[in-house]
Amino acid sequence: MEITEKNGRKQIWLQTEKELRAYVHPLRQRILQLLALAPAGMTAKQLADRLQIAPSSAGHHLAALERIGLVRLARTELVHGLTAKYYEAAPADICLRDTEPAAAEMKNALMQDAVNGIYGRMMRAVRELEERGEAPGPGDGDTMTGVIHLTKAEAAGLQETLLAFFAAHDRPREGTVPYEYAVIAYAAGETT
Q1: Measured distance CA(88)–CA(40) in Å, rounded
Q2: Which terminus of the chain is more solvent-facing, meaning fewer CB atoms within 10 Å of its CB: N or C?
Q3: Which of 128, 122, 118 is nearest to 182 (CA)?
Q4: Which of the four CATH numbers 3.20.20.10, 1.10.10.10, 3.30.1330.60, 3.20.20.70 does domain 2-143 have?
């Protein structure tokens, strides 16, 4: 594992099969998603209740995510005489290097699951709006597809702009709600 920084954000480079396995575990992915949507943080017990698993299991997965730098202790509180530990998603980007054959397969599966998961959760949210009799609006969820024509420099600039925007909006502020996103862009053809 290598840790670098870009645009003021920590980048965690996972390279080996073992590092990727620690990250790609389905429960850990769900924990990261739940923590990203919980600005006040969550305890292992709260996560366990949401995921319908034992608190010790949630604690085990939190510890694994904390070891690779994706989860951090947000605060502790005294609750009924016990110290409750609240965890939050760390402001970091995961970067994947497929240096081993199994790592490349896991990277592909992880990316497909991530995009499918975000799309599925968006469609569920839109359906819930419609079931309540509300018409989904522009800020309720959208997918955009198409082709744009960019130079390599423009593509790099677009990536930098997106990364800077995401970094500037990765923490809750008053009046904001969390939005999940997935952006896929690649050079689809030859230079004209």
Answers
A1: 8
A2: C
A3: 118
A4: 1.10.10.10
Pair of tokens at residue 11: 């980048």
pTM score of the predicted model:
0.68
Q: How many CB atoms lie within 10 A of CB 119?
A: 14
Residue 73 pLDDT grade (very low, low, confident, very high; cuts 50, 70, 90)? very high
- What are the domain boundaries of the chain? 2-143
Q: What is the pLDDT of residues 3-58, one digit of tens each?
A: 888 767 788 888 777 788 888 888 998 999 899 888 889 999 999 999 999 999 99
The DSSP string of the chain is -EEEEETTEEEEEE-SHHHHHHHH-HHHHHHHHHHHT-TT-B-HHHHHHHHTS-HHHHHHHHHHHHHTTSEEEEEEEEETTEEEEEEEE-SEEEEE---SHHHHHHHHHHHHHHHHHHHHHHHHHHHHHHHTTPPP-TTS-----------HHHHHHHHHHHHHHHHHTSS--TT-------------S---
Assess contact for 16 and 27: CB atoms under 8 A.
no
